[in-house]
C-alpha cells in the first residue's frame, strides 16, 4: 500500500523551545498508525501539524515538508481550510458544537459548500455507530448526549466531510471502558475508507487497533514498526521501558 | 508528653476558634443585613411616596402647567429614544472591539495597553464623559445640545462596559470549541460568526442589557449634551433637545421653583425610573436563563 501522508525533516519549535527535532515518518493508506510516547514527547504536536492547527500559534516555527499524497500541505498555494477538509480531526475531549445533533453534522458540509441532505447526515451517523441511538432526536442539542456518544458524534462530524485522513488525539482518554471499546471498534471499522493516525497513552489500545506504531521520545522518533513486532520485540531500550510501564 | 501538650493547646485553641468564627460569621452577615436594610429603606421610601402618583394617566400624559400637573410621557419617550441611540452607537463597536481583542489581537504590550486603557475608561466619572461630549459632539462636531449628542456621549460611556463584558463572555468559550470548527474547514471568521458568538450570546446580551440599564439612569453625561428642562410636546427628533427621566427627577427635586408642589411627581418619576431599570435587569436575567436552558 502506498504512503498517504508523510513528514520529511520536520522541525517544529515554539519560541525558543524545540518540540520536534527532525521527524521523518510516513503513514500508509488504509492503515491505523498509533503514536505513542511519554507526555511532552511531541506526539500531539506532530499530529496537529498534519492539519495545520499550529497556524494559529503565532510563535510556532515549522520547517521541513509534510505531504498528503504529492501535495505539500504547507505549500504556498495551499489553504489551511482545504487541508482540514481533506484531513479531519477528532480531539481528546469531545467538543460538539452547541447546536443540534443534525447541525453538528451539516455545519462542516455547509461551510465547504458540500451537499448536506438528510441522507448524508444519516450515512455519517451510521458510519459512526450512532444512528440507531439518535435517529429520533436529531433536533436535540448535541451537548445532551453522553460523553461516548458526543465523541462518536465528533467522529461522524469528521467523516461527513469524506476526508482522506482522520487524526485522533487521544479520543478515548476522557471515556469509560465501555465507551472506549465501542470507539475502538468504530475506529477499526473506519480504516477501509480512511487513513487513521491516533495518539494514545493506552498501550493496550495501540495493540488492539493499530497496524503500525511509532514510539516518540523528547521530540524524536525512537522506533517504529508493525504494532506486534514493536510491542513483542522492541529494538530500543527506551521503547521497551516505556511499553512495560517503567516511565510515562 | 507530646500528646498532653497537644491536648492542652487544643483546649486553649477551641474557645478562641469558636469566638473568632462567630465574629467572622457575624461581620459577614451583619454587613449583608446592613446593605439590604438601606436598600429596602430606599425602595420603601420611593414606593410609598411614588405609588399613589402612578396611574395610567400619569404615564401617558404630558407634563403640564410648568410640570406641576400632568404626567411624564415626554421624559419616558426621551429616555427610551436615548437608550436606543446609546445601544446603536455602543453595541456594534463594543462587540467588534471585544472580538478583535480576544480573538485576533496578539498578546503583546500594545494589546495589554489597549485593554488597560479600556478598564480605566470604565472608571472615569460620568460627568467627565458629559464634559467630553459637550466639547466633541455639541461644539466640535456642531451637533448642538441634542438627542444625537447625548446618545453619542452615553454610547462612549457604555463602550468600556460592553467591551469588557463581551470579552469575558468570549473568554469563557474553550479553545477546543474553536478548534472543532477550524478542524472541519471553517475559516477563523466563520468560526467566530457561527460557533463562538452564538455560544457566548447569553453572556454578551446580559452585559449589553445591564450596561444599557445603567446608561438609562445616567444624569451627568446628558446634563450638558441634550437634556431639556421642559418640553411641552412628544415629537422627538435626533437634532432636538429631549426630556429624560433621571434629569426630570433631578430637576423636579432640586431646581423647580415650587418644589413642595412637584414633590409627588418627583417620587412618581423616581419609581418609574426604578421600575424601568428593574425591568431591564429582569430582561438580562431572563436572557441568561433561557440561553442556559437552551445550552443544556
Automatic annotation (TrEMBL), chain A:
Cellular-component GO terms for this entry: membrane
Gene3D superfamilies, alphabetized: P-loop containing nucleotide triphosphate hydrolases
Domain called ABC transporter: residue spans: 5-243
InterPro entries according to UniProt: AAA+_ATPase (IPR003593), ABC_transporter-like_ATP-bd (IPR003439), ABC_transporter-like_CS (IPR017871), P-loop_NTPase (IPR027417), PstB-like (IPR005670)
Coiled coil: none
UniProt-recorded Gene Ontology molecular function terms: ATP binding; ATP hydrolysis activity; phosphate transmembrane transporter activity
PROSITE patterns: ABC_TRANSPORTER_1 (PS00211), ABC_TRANSPORTER_2 (PS50893)
Keyword set includes Transmembrane helix: no
Entry keyword set: ATP-binding, Nucleotide-binding, Phosphate transport, Transport
Classification via PANTHER family: ABC TRANSPORTER I FAMILY MEMBER 17 (PTHR43423:SF1)
Protein name per UniProt: Phosphate ABC transporter, ATPase subunit
Native species: Sphingobacterium deserti
Automatic annotation (TrEMBL), chain B:
Compartmental location: Cell membrane
BP GO annotations: phosphate ion transmembrane transport
Coiled-coil region: none
UniProt KW keywords: Cell membrane, Membrane, Transmembrane, Transmembrane helix, Transport
Domain of life of the source: Bacteria
Protein name: Phosphate transport system permease protein PstA
Membrane topology: Multi-pass membrane protein
Regions crossing the membrane: 22-47, 72-101, 121-138, 144-163, 265-287
Stored Gene3D superfamilies: MetI-like
Family: Belongs to the binding-protein-dependent transport system permease family. CysTW subfamily.
GO cellular component terms given for this protein: plasma membrane
PANTHER family according to UniProt: PHOSPHATE TRANSPORT SYSTEM PERMEASE PROTEIN PSTA-RELATED (PTHR43470:SF3)
GO molecular function: phosphate transmembrane transporter activity
Domain ABC transmembrane type-1: 76-284
PROSITE patterns: ABC_TM1
Pfam families: BPD_transp_1 (PF00528)
Amino acid at each position: 500500500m502506498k504512503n498517504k501522508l508523510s513528514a520529511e525533516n520536520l522541525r517544529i519549535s515554539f519560541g525558543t523551545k524545540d518540540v520536534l527535532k527532525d521527524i521523518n515518518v510516513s503513514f500508509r493508506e488504509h492503515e491505523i498508525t498509533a503514536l505513542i510516547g511519554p507526555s511532552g514527547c511531541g506526539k500531539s504536536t506532530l499530529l496537529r501539524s498534519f492539519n495545520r492547527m499550529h497556524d494559529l500559534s503565532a510563535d510556532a516555527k515549522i520547517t521541513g515538508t509534510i505531504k498528503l499524497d504529492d501535495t505539500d500541505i504547507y505549500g504556498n498555494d495551499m489553504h489551511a481550510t482545504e487541508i482540514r477538509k481533506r484531513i479531519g480531526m477528532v480531539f481528546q475531549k469531545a467538543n460538539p458544537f452547541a447546536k443540534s445533533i443534525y447541525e453538528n453534522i451539516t455545519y462542516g458540509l455547509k461551510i465547504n459548500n458540500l451537499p448536506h441532505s438528510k441522507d448524508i447526515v444519516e450515512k455519517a451517523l451510521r458510519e459512526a455507530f450512532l444512528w440507531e441511538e439518535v435517529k429520533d432526536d436529531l433536533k436535540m442539542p448535541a451537548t445532551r448526549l453522553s460523553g461516548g456518544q458526543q465523541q462518536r458524534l465528533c467522529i461522524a462530524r469528521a467523516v461527513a466531510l469524506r476526508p482522506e485522513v482522520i487524526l485522533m488525539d487521544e479520543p478515548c482518554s476522557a471515556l469509560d471502558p465501555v465507551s472506549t471499546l465501542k470507539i475502538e471498534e468504530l475506529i477499526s471499522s473506519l480504516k477501509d475508507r480512511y487513513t487513521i493516525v491516533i495518539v494514545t497513552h493506552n498501550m493496550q489500545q495501540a495493540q488492539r487497533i493499530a497496524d503500525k506504531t511509532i514510539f516518540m521520545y523528547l521530540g524524536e522518533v525512537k522506533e517504529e514498526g508493525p504494532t506486534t513486532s514493536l510491542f513483542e520485540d522492541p529494538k530500543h531500550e527506551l521503547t521497551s521501558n516505556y511499553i512495560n510501564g517503567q516511565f510515562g | 508528653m507530646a500528646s498532653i501538650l497537644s491536648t492542652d493547646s487544643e483546649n486553649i485553641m477551641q474557645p478562641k476558634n469558636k469566638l473568632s468564627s462567630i465574629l467572622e460569621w457575624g461581620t459577614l452577615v451583619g454587613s449583608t443585613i446592613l446593605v439590604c436594610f438601606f436598600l429596602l429603606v430606599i425602595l420603601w421610601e420611593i414606593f410609598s411616596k411614588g405609588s399613589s402618583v402612578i396611574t395610567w394617566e400619569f404615564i401617558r400624559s404630558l407634563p403640564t402647567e410648568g410640570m406641576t400637573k400632568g404626567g411624564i410621557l415626554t421624559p419616558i419617550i426621551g429616555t427610551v429614544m436615548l437608550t436606543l441611540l446609546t445601544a446603536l452607537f455602543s453595541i456594534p463597536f463594543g462587540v467588534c472591539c471585544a472580538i478583535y481583542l480576544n480573538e485576533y489581537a496578539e498578546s503583546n504590550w500594545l494589546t495589554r495597553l489597549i485593554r488597560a486603557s479600556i478598564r480605566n475608561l470604565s472608571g472615569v466619572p460620568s460627568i467627565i464623559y458629559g464634559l467630553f461630549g459637550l466639547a466633541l459632539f455639541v461644539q466640535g462636531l456642531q451637533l448642538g445640545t441634542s438627542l444625537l449628542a447625548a446618545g453619542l456621549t452615553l454610547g462612549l460611556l457604555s463602550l468600556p462596559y460592553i467591551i469588557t463584558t463581551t470579552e469575558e463572555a468570549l473568554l469563557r468559550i474553550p479553545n477546543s470549541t474553536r478548534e472543532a470548527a477550524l478542524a472541519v474547514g471553517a475559516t477563523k471568521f466563520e468560526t467566530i460568526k457561527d460557533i463562538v458568538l452564538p455560544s457566548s450570546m447569553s453572556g454578551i446580551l446580559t452585559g449589553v442589557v445591564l450596561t444599557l440599564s445603567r446608561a438609562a439612569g445616567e444624569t451627568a453625561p446628558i446634563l450638558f449634551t441634550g437634556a431639556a428642562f421642559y418640553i411641552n410636546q412628544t415629537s422627538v427628533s435626533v437634532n432636538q433637545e429631549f426630556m429624560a427621566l433621571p434629569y426630570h427627577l433631578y430637576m423636579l427635586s432640586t431646581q423647580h421653583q415650587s418644589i413642595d408642589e412637584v414633590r409627588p411627581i418627583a417620587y412618581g418619576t423616581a419609581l418609574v425610573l426604578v421600575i424601568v431599570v428593574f425591568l431591564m435587569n429582569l430582561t438580562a436575567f431572563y436572557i441568561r436563563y433561557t440561553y442556559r436552558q437552551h445550552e443544556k
